[in-house]
Structures are given as C-alpha cells and as structure tokens.
Specification:
Shape: globular
Strand order of the largest sheet: 4-12-11-10-7-5-6
Structural class: alpha/beta
Distance between the termini: 25 Å
Bound molecules: pyridoxal-5'-phosphate
Number of helices: 14
Mean pLDDT: 98
CATH topology of the largest domain: Aspartate Aminotransferase, domain 2
Largest sheet: 7 strands, mixed
Number of strands: 17
CATH class of the largest domain: Alpha Beta
Length: 397
Amino acid sequence: MSEKMKEYIDEAEKALLHTYNRYRIVLDHGEGVHLYDIDGKSYLDFVAGIAVFALGYGDKEYNDALKAQIDKLLHTSNYYYNVPAIEAAKLLKKESGMDRVFFTNSGAEAVEGAIKTARKYAYTRDGHTDHEIIAMEHSFHGRTMGALSVTGNAHYREAFEPGIGNIRFATYNDLDSVKALVSRKTCAIILETVQGEGGLTPATPEFLEGIRKICDENDILMILDEIQCGMGRTGSWFAWQKYGIKPDVMTSAKALGCGVPIGAFLMTEKVAGSSLVPGDHGTTYGGNPFACEAAKTVLELFEKRDIIEHVNSVAPYLEEKLGEIKSRHSCIKEIRGTGLMRGLVFDGPVSGVINKALEKGLILINAGSDILRFVPPLVITEKDIDTMAEILDSCIE
Ligand SMILES: *Cc1c(COP(=O)(O)O)cnc(C)c1O
C-alpha cells in the first residue's frame, strides 16, 4: 500500500464517525465489473456497492444521461412536476404492476413510507391508533428509527429502544408463527421476499402465499421489501413476481439508481385511495430530477439490454461454481440464496477469507459473521465467475 493511501486512511479514521470497520482500500474509479484503488490496483467486484451497481461501473449511456441532466436541472422540490420523475414512475409502475409511486432518497426512507402508509390505511378504516405491524426475525429494513423498529436483529435495536412500538416479530418461513400474532390490531406484515443481511434466505412459496391469504382475509397490508432482492437480482424485475402473488405495498432502492441515491415505495390503487393524502408525507430531495433521471435511465437500460434475461442465463453458472467450491472445502456448510444473490455459509467467521481475497484483487462481503455474500453487478459474465472462483478457492483454508 502506498504512503498516500495510508495517509488517506489515517485522515478518514480521524474525521469520519467510526460506525464502520472499513476494509483498508481507498477506491478511485471503476470500469465494468472492476474497481480500482488510488494506487491503480484492480479488483474484480462481487459486491457492487452492496447490490447497487447492477449495470457495472462507468457505463457511458448512464453517465451521459446524468451529465445531461446536471446541465439541465438538479432539483425542483415536490411542489412542481419534473419530467424524469414522471417517466421513472411510469416505468416503475409498468415493471412492477403497482399503481402509485413515492420516491425517497434511500431504502430506509422507503420503509418509513411503507410503515406510515400501513398505519394510515388502518387508521382511515377504523380510527384506532393502536395498530401493530408483524415483522420477521433476521430481517433487515434499514437504520432509521421506523425501519430499525421492524428489523429483526436485537443487536441493532437494543441501544436505541424504544422503537416506534407495536411491532411483533414472527419466524421467517414459519406461517404458524405469523398466524399466532395476527389480531384486530394488525395493520401490516412486512418482510423481505429474499432476506439479505439476515442470511440470503428466500421466502418459501407456501409462506408468501399464506401471508397473502392472511392479509386478504383480514384487510392487512402485505409489505414486501425488495430493496436488495428487487431490480432483477433474482431473475425477475422484482423477486415476488416469481411467486404468483402481489404485495399491497413494496419498497425499492439499491439498484434502482445504480449509485445515485434513490428509493421508492409503491402501492396499489386500493391502498393509495385510503391512506396517505396531501400533508401526510413529504421529502425535500426525494424524487428530484437528477435522482429520477438515474432511475429512469436504469429502468430503460435494463429493458434495452435485457438484463433480467442475462441474470437468468448467468445465475445457474454461479450456483454451479459455488457448488464446486463447497465440495472442495469442508468448512463450507451450505449454499444459500437465488439468482445473483447468493451466500456461502461457513463454519466460522469469513472476515479472513474476505481480507485475503482483497489482497488478491477480489471484492467480497459478508452477511452476518459466517456467511460470504455474492451480490455482483448483474452484468457479470461466466468468465468473471471463473476468475472469482479461482481466487476464492485459493483464499479458503
Ligand atoms: C439495504 C437495505 C435497506 C436499507 O436501505 P438504505 O438505502 O441503506 O437505507 C432496507 N431493506 C433491505 C432489504 C436492504 O437490503
């Protein structure tokens, strides 16, 4: 590592709040599926900024669209209309089949909006203010107070209690545990279609169908968090589309902007018609023309380049290669996940493997301490997967 890089890292450790134990590289630029640090060292990237940079780095069409928008207009506030937001909303509606969109600046904010929608929907119906939300153990929905309150990780929540209150936790993929918590007070059930941080666990079809049924029978809103598993990552625009069910409310973010901060919560017309009204919710930046130009361009490029089809063609190869790696190393217990959202479960911490891989020019990340997570740019090729597998193999003892 160069002196210059060491200096930057020292500066960072003095200036930035220490809320992350960062890997010791300072990144400079990216191209395709590779990142480069300030010393010029290249890394094959299997993280994509945590499931964000779906299109890969330095994409000319994406960059040109953003540059043009910068010269036109960056921000308007939500008191006026802007064309990129209108077009992004139209495309997002088309691909999701949902009816109404609210743009946010992040995933956590999208979850906040979904929670407010659910509470208002129930309040509109019965006028009560004691509604409960059922969330899942091992879930992750973000770090703001509302999103944190529905996050099923006591370690993340404990120091910040009390949360927003009236949240009950059920066991993921255990329908009976959900049924046991349903009452007159329940206004929503929130879950990730595929749990990300919590361990790359897809919902079983029976679980999602069962929750849909509970929600239909009790006028409870089914909220699917698609922030990590959506936007093509599992081989459909949104992961729930492979299950034959549809949520009442869904959240998106991460790959939606491919690097420009933008999230969204979407809902059906039925929910929109009896929940949030003018004055109930807002944001200064959310849905601004720059961020929406990013989302609009991403949605267009996904379609034009058939990114979903590419995911479906390359994902089985990743699964196969991970299977081969697992068969060679007894410390790997299980392969988890689906599509290009995969995990290798180890019998101990994976931090050593990640650091060794970094040295050898491969960027990987964990999910929990014992799971190695693979959420590469969606444009990854079989050749990139071969390179990854070769490096990873040499990093596992
Ligand atoms: C990352 C993530 C969030 C939070 O998104 P931020 O943009 O970090 O606020 C919420 N839900 C899921 C499933 C996520 O993976």
